[in-house]
Design a protein that fits this description.
Layout: H1 19-28, H2 35-45, E1 50-53, H3 60-71, E2 81-84, H4 88-101, E3 110-113, H5 119-128, E4 132-135, H6 137-146, E5 156-159, H7 162-167, H8 171-179, E6 186-191, H9 196-205, E7 210-213, E8 224-230, H10 236-246, E9 251-255, H11 259-271, E10 276-279, H12 285-296, E11 302-305, E12 318-323, H13 330-337, E13 347-353, H14 358-368, E14 373-374, H15 380-400, H16 406-419, H17 423-435, E15 473-478, H18 488-499, E16 509-511, E17 516-521, H19 526-533, E18 536-537, E19 540-541, E20 545-546
Parallel strand pairs: 1-6, 1-7, 2-4, 2-5, 3-4, 5-6, 8-13, 8-14, 9-11, 9-12, 10-11, 12-13
Antiparallel strand pairs: 15-17, 15-20, 16-17, 18-19
Helix pairs in contact: 2-3, 3-4, 6-8, 13-14
Length: about 575
């Protein structure tokens, strides 16, 4: 059964969530549910199994976490909810989301478990108890075999990013775990695509699931330039003010996630001399309309808004949309940047991305089919040049105006005679006085983008091709191959979960009988290489080494040619 997208007029209070959960999401700043949330939450609260066809960035974590938390029993420390995730990064993110949504639930505990983490610590925490466990398939299997993870009281099971688990070779592990869970559990499966293997899992282990399919708006205007800056919280505001100094803009709509953030950011920008105002769901309609009118009539230049508060805004002079907070929903991104580039005009969309939010950036690119380019932050010289231009433009405008300057002519003429000063000297002194609180000459330290050297995700990667490594990558050899029963998914999964290297940074993989070649970042730190070298796949130690190509006959080899190895520690 497929559900239609509900009206966006629905609110979280309409969805029968528990009072503590509603308090928590109000504190987080969520105002209205996304389409996947509006459909999945009622179905899960009604006890139905669901299959959600939705990509990263649609708000699916809240779609299953909120209704399940509304029904969890915090008086018991038994594990009641199990979430399977393909990577430790996603497991951590989901666990943090559960913690955030349960902030008003005393006695609640969530535990992420994944490879590469100290097993003794996980055993201690499992013994203490956690109502929610979020884990990667391999580590969950380890604990089930040890008997350290008790699922006899399990009521809810979530398969998150099922197609990614299939790609990484975990689908048999997932089936094994499902066989070891209570038959009367409620199951939610989320996947961006529905290949036959995932369809088989759904038909085998889910009970008459309700299918929720989210169709997404994926087109953005060709006349909108899209760029992003990778910034941490510490330098985010500094980066924003530099951009505003140099970027020639008319009107700006700036998006943040919460109502509180609209006010805080507006106050900070006003303190820096910008004409800025907040607009959010707490404002009455009259004040909201007055604020939008100020943007239209140019008495206001920057509007800081939440998604809900910005609905229906159509102001022609908006030249820029700045996503100060990246949206969780890719569709929301499309709606946001659509407020510039109106009526055939060009526009610019700037996106701030925290290092841990890169998954959302890639999801937006995938949904829109457009690459968002990294931007170069303005230097101190660029800011100086912009301030000088602005200063000189002000002087020119006054000289070209009809302003009566005779009083000042007499005043400064008298000063020249009385103090034996040259007009140029007085002009320099006046210029200094005018700009001393905001100096024209700017010296700024570099704000480097976080993890700038990491290669971007490569789309449509084919791990079985044998072309040379891509730019920024180096080819390595590992000592496991077809004869050992290895598959690409085994290798990707082991490295991602045991060494913590994200799967998107693992390039081409080619299996041979006794070994495998794979591409990894060429600036990979030595400790990470050593960690990969010690990983076991199909009973074999990987023993990572740089690939030297086909082995030549002894007659053609150099006497002491040896390949560099990374010793396992």
């Amino acid at each position: 059964m497929s559900s239609e997208i509900l009206s966006d007029s629905i609110t979280f209070t309409d969805l029968a969530l528990s009072e503590p959960v509603l308090k928590a999401i109000a504190k987080v700043g969520y105002e209205t549910p996304s389409p996947i949330q509006a459909q999945a939450i009622p179905a899960l609260l009604a006890g139905k199994d669901i299959v959600g066809l939705a990509q990263t960035g649609t708000g699916k974590t809240a779609a299953f976490a909120l209704p399940m938390l509304s029904q969890v029993d915090t008086r018991s420390q038994n594990t009641q909810i199990l979430v399977l995730a393909p990577t430790r990064e996603l497991a951590i993110q989901v666990a943090e989301a559960f913690q955030r949504y349960a902030s008003e639930m005393p006695g609640f505990h969530v535990l992420p478990i994944y490879g590469g983490q100290d097993m003794r610590g996980q055993l201690r925490q499992l013994k203490r108890g956690a109502q929610v466990v979020v884990g990667t398939p391999g580590r969950v299997m380890d604990h089930l075999r040890r008997g350290s993870l008790d699922l006899s009281h399990l009521t809810n099971l979530v398969l998150d990013e099922a197609d990614e688990m299939l790609r990484m070779g975990f689908i048999d592990d997932v089936s094994w775990i499902l066989e070891h869970t209570p038959k009367n559990r409620q199951t939610a499966l989320f996947s961006a695509t529905m290949p036959k293997e995932i369809r088989r899992v759904a038909s085998t282990y889910l009970r008459e699931p309700e299918e929720i399919r989210i169709t997404r708006e994926s087109s953005t205007g060709a006349n909108i330039e899209q760029v992003y800056w990778m910034a941490s919280g510490a330098n985010k505001l500094d980066a924003l003010t530099r951009i505003l100094e140099v970027e020639p803009f008319d009107g700006i709509i700036m998006f943040v996630r919460t109502k509180t953030a609209t006010v805080e950011l507006a106050e900070k920008l006003e303190a820096r001399g910008y004409s800025a105002a907040a607009i959010n769901g707490d404002m009455n309609q009259a004040l909201r309309e007055r604020t939008i009118e100020r943007l239209k009539n140019k008495s206001l230049d920057i509007l800081i808004a939440t998604d809900v508060a910005a609905r229906g805004i159509d102001v022609e002079r908006v030249s820029h949309v700045i996503n100060y907070d990246i949206p969780y929903d890719s569709e929301a991104y499309v709606h946001r940047i659509g407020r510039t580039g109106r009526a055939g005009r060009s526009g610019k969309a700037i996106l701030f991305v925290a290092p841990r939010e890169k998954r959302l950036l890639y999801a937006i690119e995938k949904a829109t089919g457009q690459r968002i380019e990294p931007m170069k932050l303005p230097s101190g010289d660029a800011v100086t040049a912009a301030r000088v231009d602005q200063f000189l433009q002000g002087v020119t405008e006054v000289l070209q105006s009809d302003q009566d300057l005779s009083f000042f002519d007499e005043l400064l003429g008298n000063y020249c005679r009385e103090h034996d000063a040259e007009p140029e000297q007085i002009a320099m002194a006046l210029a200094y006085l005018l700009q001393k609180d905001r100096p024209l000459q700017v010296k700024l330290t570099d704000l480097k983008p976080e993890f700038a050297s990491e290669p971007r995700e490569r789309k449509e990667r084919n791990p079985r091709t044998n072309r040379g490594p891509e730019e920024g990558m180096k080819r390595y050899r590992i000592e496991v191959g077809r004869n050992h029963g290895a598959r690409p998914g085994d290798i990707v999964g082991a490295i991602a979960n045991e060494a913590g290297l994200k799967s998107r940074f693992i390039g081409q993989i080619k299996l041979f009988d006794s070994f495998t070649t794979l591409d990894l970042p060429n600036d990979m730190p030595a400790p990470l290489a050593q960690k990969i070298a010690g990983i076991h796949v199909r009973g074999q130690v990987l023993s990572l080494s740089e690939d030297r190509g086909p082995v030549r006959s002894k007659a053609h080899q150099k006497p002491k040619a040896k390949k560099k190895k990374f010793a396992a520690r």
